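Cross-check.
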Amino acid sequence: MPDSSIFLADMPDMESQNSTVYRGEEIKVLANEAFKARKYAQAIDLYTQAIELNSQNAVYWANRAFAHTKLEEYGSAIQDASKAIEIDPKYSKGYYRRGAAFLAMGKFKEALKDFQQVKKLCPNDPDAAKKLKECEKAVMKLKFEEAIATPESERRSVADAIDFRSIDVEQQYSGARIEGDNVTLDFVKNMLDDFKNQKCLHKRYAFQIVLQTRDMLRALPSLVDINIPDGKRFTVCGDVHGQFYDLLNIFELNGLPSEENPYLFNGDFVDRGSFSVEVILTLFAFKCMCPSAMYLSRGNHESKSMNKIYGFEGEVRSKLNETFVELFAEVFCCLPLAHVINDKVFVVHGGLFSVDGVKLSDIRAIDRFCEPPEEGLMCELLWSDPQPFPGRGPSKRGVGLSFGADVTKKFLQENNLDLVVRSHEVKDEGYEIEHDGKLITVFSAPNYCDQMGNKGAFIRFEAPELKPNIVTFSAVPHPDVKPMAYANNFLRMFS
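Predicted model, tokenized:
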């Protein structure tokens, strides 16, 4: 017979273990409820608590991966899904979640391997078969595009081959018209009215706006200095992401761009929202109308790889034509990477760097006329995010890095600056102040993707104090066109 004293001694441990497991399941239920309510950050916190109670439960890791995906934290999603697979190599949702995250990063070949595994584990699941088939198509298309791509050294500028003046405007065209070479405020207002009513701008005028903007952007340095006279104000907006009707609301609240009311839009003008063509033509038209009324920074979504996946490329094909796809890609490579306002406020889409000692002169020296690389200063400017603890860490996105308050403080001190303003992240209130008040995130796409429930925000600065005055606003109605309507077919299956 077993020793009863040993048996009794083990019972409290077993009860404790059972209690821990039970508590983990209770927290998972709360996390699932938060996820359904689209409170993804809260869901991540709760799944983390469940993992701390029972780290060998693959479901907790896979569920947290899904929540990370919803917040576009694809690097973290891949890590969590990989942990779920390590715990249970036969858990199909682990492969599914990781495949979806790889897909969102444009890593189709890695995604294909995971969906092949899902199909192997669930041979009779029609959904798994459908997604595998779509992934195979995406990889085949990618291979074909790589095979026919012109080498970089042989590529010619598509802009140089376009003569917009030779394009006839049909008599029946009743939309906004540019008379001569100059974009006027009257034209812009007429164009905005047409866009509000879902009418397209004639290709002649669209070409004229984009080509004139290209000429202006090409002449700018990679880091642009902005000087605001005393008593004058300046407005910084974050991501707009194709939410045209919310962009109009910003102008309603804060006035149209002009020499007296200048704006900086801090990247991610396009993708996700399904009115990206209207947004980009609006911003470019104001730039043409008055260059000092509109400043534009490059975001990580002003790139071919993002536009191919998240909708802008498909939308441009649908509303304009294939030539514009190439033209926008070329013009996006001309966008400056950062701005400095009155030698005090550093404005950049993503964030700071993996090394100390980066000077403003180093940013000015970047050759930006290319697609964003996967590492280095240019990549980090577009992709990095702040973190709440000191030092540096891996990026939750899988690109760039995370940086702490000490990194921000040192960068500001070394460059005699007061504040970093950046965008790149959805915030519930449209903004967040971090790093001891030295860093502000501003995001200007309210109810992002029609599902996040967040507010939008913009920041007004008035010289000489340049104290940030943050204005928040809610989403406004838009026509019944869903976000991601023009996105990669395969990606829409997961959104």
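The CA atoms of residues 209 and 285 lie 6 Å apart. Confidence is low (pLDDT under 50) at residues 1-9. Passed to J.P. for a second look.
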